[in-house]
Amino acid sequence: MSQAAVVARTSSEGAGGFAADTARSRVVLEQEYRLMTSTFPLHLAVALDGAGWHPAAWREPHSRPSELFSASYWTDLVTTAERGLLDFVTIEDSLSVPTAHPFGPVDNSVDQVRARLDAHLVAARLAPVTRNIGLVPTVTTTHTEPFHVSKAVATLDYTSRGRAGWQVKVSASALESGQFGRRSIPELSEQDRESIVAGVLPDFVRDLFDESAEAADIVRRLWDSWEDDAEIRDVAQRRFIDRDKVHTIDFEGKYLSVRGPSITPRPPQGQPVVTALAHQRVAYELAARAADLVFVTPPGAEQVAPIIGEVNAAQERVGRRGEALRVYADVVVFLDADGESGQDRLDRLDALSGNEYRSDAYIFAGSVSALADLLIAWQEKGIDGFRLRPGVAVDDLDAISGRLVPELQNRGVFRTEYPQENLRGVLGLPTDVPNRYAAGTPAA
Amino acid sequence: MSSQQRKQVILGAYLGGVNHHTAWWDPQAGSQIEFDSFEHTARTAERGKFDFFFLAEGLALRERAGQVFDQDIIGRPDTFTVLASLAAVTEHLGLAGTINATFNEPYELARQFATLDQLSGGRAAWNVVTSFDAFTGQNFRRGGYLDSSQRYERAEETLALVRELWDSWRSDDIVADKDSGRFLARPDAGEFAFHGSHFDVSGKFTVPRSPQGRPVILQAGVSPQGRDFAAGNADAIFSPYGDLPDAVEFYRDIKARAVAAGREPGEIKILPSASFVLGTSEADAIEKYRDIRNQQVTGQTALILLEQIWNRDLSAYDPEGPLPDIAPDPEAPPIIQGKAFIHQDRFATVERLRAVAESKKLTLREVVIDQFERGPIVGTAQQVAEKIDSFVQNDGSDGFIIGSHLVPTGLDEFVDEVVPLLQDRGALRADYEGTTLRDNLGLAIPAEREKASAR
Question: Would you call B293 helix, strand, or coil by DSSP?
């Protein structure tokens, strides 16, 4: 918490200049600020996970724990996020029930949410009830088939009309492999766990990341296996497609081989948005090889620039070409509510769960104004956007859309309406994506 | 007439696509891939009080001699994704999809169907198919090939394991009591273990029990082994028989096998698929049907359909001439790939086709038109309603899975014209009565595991 306090204080000193001025000059200052800020507008997304990121979130008065597995709950969350004009929502997933510690075994506790739905299908269920917000489910790569993943995300792009994304995730747990059954993944030793936390991956985990990059490459190639204009519907010649524009991918990798083509025509975005969460070198490299956007977890303002440096170095090491990775910082948020500070809420939740809440990401507890300060400060250090993890889904998401976003709009750093574009367009990625298999396109 | 007394017609709606039946050349034809088409068909089916919407699957594009088909529709969406999206635009309609059990593992299948079931409020159904062709396998890690005895063994185990997973949660396992802080009723909710010859897995399943207990299982099978499998495991079976005498025999056989497997006859529903053609008069409908058939089976399509039987390149033959005078070649590598086709006996099939051509004096293309499709239900709306109802009342089936050659609007006229007549006859509900697919089909919610589990 001390780091949060430091950041908040630093930022509010900066904002103190505004506060000291009159209301009118504040507007002028904000306009100047906008001109100074090359990264306008600020990008904002949220990460949805069950009742929220705090293990006791489900016990909050507004939480709806018995509805966590119903469509209406998820519809309400995503429409709240869309009301806030957010870039996208990610939906967390894993092949095992949520556990107290990411690599730990499932304990037998009965006081936490120990169930979850398939995130991709949740996203698909949400597609017709939303219009603008991006839908980015987590789909794991270790046990699943890249052919299925490719057509699933492509189809989400069809049913959402160009708003699909994918968060790539490795399943490195013995738990998941024991449930799935196709391959065996060893139980992590205590030493392995410590080593992962310290940023060094055991060899087999490193291989899983490598395999994951292959899987993502296959997924992307399958998206390109149909050219956009392959379907010609030439009635006179009785030709439905131009078969020269449908391609096998003939992928032969170190871990996977897939022939293709996909059964699903190229999705509306051409290449839906690929994302990955990364904390260290191997994962940065996976993101640099496979993703358009990486989620990073700076523990504080001072670490923002060094992490961006590591991401850039990873991009160089893997020889990334074209668009640079977009870098979004993950921040867990507990925002001030009526009559209760964010910190008090967090303390109360910790008391309910019996443990101090810890996260891989920075934990922010405070006002929307202080959070806005933090976001702007981190953005100035080179972050492209933020993925907020609501500590309590219903309450903090409501605060994000209802109070944080207006605050950011008042400061002139956040959009006031959705651009009429697909998800790639909303993120500032090129919307006209060359197809690697089209004649005249340089081979990728 | 009381609808309580008359046997109710079960209706499923399928959306065509990847085959030569779908008239993409029709000026009214829409996309087979855009969500609008699926949404329109599903909403239309729900307007017609259908029991469920059905979506087929394919996992490799069809090829002939190493080239993808280009004369008819290819390209389709992912089944699960479309069904989950359709759950958002429908309220009562069951959402059924074919998913291949070969190129998925039971854990992910169980999880995806259980999620679909939750997100639709208990409306999911799985049409279980298996295939072990090496051609499709090239798109998957699983790859490979299993001989047919192993296929059923693996299918049996898959279904047993999937049920084990679905039953791993009881309906009262989620307490979610904020005051006491108790989320789960018992620590072992979702716990499962399965040790078979194909699968050896254990852990905790992530999806709580469905509002309809568990998803509905659909099956197709005509061999004795396939019939037993379906009769023992499925909630509904696709019937390949459209003619009443054959259909009645199949119906009795399946119900008898179900009883032998310890089930009630009503626990398994029998459903043939059928297209339909409506006309202002019977003659008008027949004329329309001829016209559609003529467009569906071009000379090129006729040759390709015959190549599946001959397994030879027949492109040099004249579609308007006689059948090829050469023998089939079962030993050659398959000329057509990626299409489910049962090669019972190529030589016998060729002999039968030759006999038809001879007796009816038909050209190659005419033989295909005559022999390669079970006729749709053709007539005026009154006649079509009468045919459907009497087929069901005479135990030819428990209903039909209805589709049109025209995507996506083909079902509209069925719902506008035939459905009211079925309702008038008391053979189809005036409105939905329950909320789940099992409610629609009149199937009971499966029993739950005892609280004190044996394990």
Answer: helix
CB B30 within 8 A of CB B37: yes
Tokens for B367, please give them.
């033989």
Q: Does B171 touch chain A (CB under 8 A)?
A: no
Q: Is A131 on the interface with B (CB under 8 A)?
A: no
Residue written as token pair 């040099």: B316
pLDDT digits (tens, 9 = 90+) for A300-353: 999 999 999 999 999 999 999 999 999 999 999 999 998 999 999 999 999 999
Rg of chain B on CA atoms, in Å: 23
Closest CA–CA distance from residue B144 to any residue of chain A (Å): 13
Residue A329 pairs in a beta bridge with A296, A386
- For chain B, give the percent of residues with pLDDT over 90: 80
Whole-angstrom Cα distance, residue B308 to residue B63? 11
- Contact yes or no for A111 and B181 at CB 8 A: yes
> Phi and psi of A154, rounded to 5°?
-60, -40
Q: Residues B390, B394, B400, B405: what is their CA dihedral angle, to the nearest 10 degrees?
A: -50
Asked if B206 and A116 touch (Cβ cutoff 8 Å), the reply is yes
CA distances from A40 to A174, A301, A382, A404 (A): 44, 19, 12, 16
**pLDDT digit string, tens, across residues B11-30:** 999 998 888 889 999 999 99
**Is A265 part of the contact surface with chain B (CB cutoff 8 Å)?**
yes
Whole-number Å distance between alpha carbons of A88 and B149: 48
Q: How big is the CA angle at B339 (ends B232 and B309), to the nearest 5 degrees?
A: 100
More confident of the two residues B234 and B145:
B234
Sign of the Cα pseudo-torsion (B97, B101, B103, B108, in order): positive
Q: Which residue has the tokens 């979850």?
A: A116
CA distances from residue A246 to A229, A240, B68 in whole angstroms, order as listed? 10, 12, 8
Please list the ranges in chain A whose pLDDT falls under 50. 1-24, 27, 31, 33-39, 443-444
Which residue type is seen at B405? H
Closest listed residue to residue A261, CA positions, set B99, B334, B68, B35: B68
Does the distance separating the beta carbons of A110 and B119 come in below 8 Å? no
Query: Quick one: which of B33, B35, B21 has its CA closest to B76?
Result: B33
The residue type at A408: L
Task: Specify whether the CB–CB gap between B421 and B385 falls below 8 A.
Answer: yes
Please tell me the distance from the alpha carbon of residue B54 to that of residue B82, in angstroms, as a whole number: 11
- Cβ(B441)–Cβ(B51) below 8 Å: yes
Provide mean pLDDT across the span B49-64. 94
- Report the distance separating Cα B12 and Cα A46, nearest Å: 39
Cα-Cα-Cα-Cα dihedral sign, residues A168, A174, A175, A177: positive
CB atoms inside a 10 Å sphere around CB B358: 11
Predicted confidence band at B145 (pLDDT cuts at 50, 70, 90)? low
Amino acid making up residue A374: L
Helix (H, G, I), strand (E, B), or coil: what is residue B38? Answer: helix
Q: Which amino acid is at A334?
A: F
How close, in Å, is residue A100 to chain B by CA atoms?
14
At A361, list the tokens.
């990401």
| B191-195 vs B200-204, strand pairing mode | antiparallel
**pLDDT tens digits for range A369-413:** 999 999 999 999 999 999 999 999 999 999 999 999 999 999 999
Burial class (CB in 10 A: 0-12, 13-18, 19+), A417: exposed
Residue at token pair 């008898």: B256
pTM of the full predicted structure?
Answer: 0.94
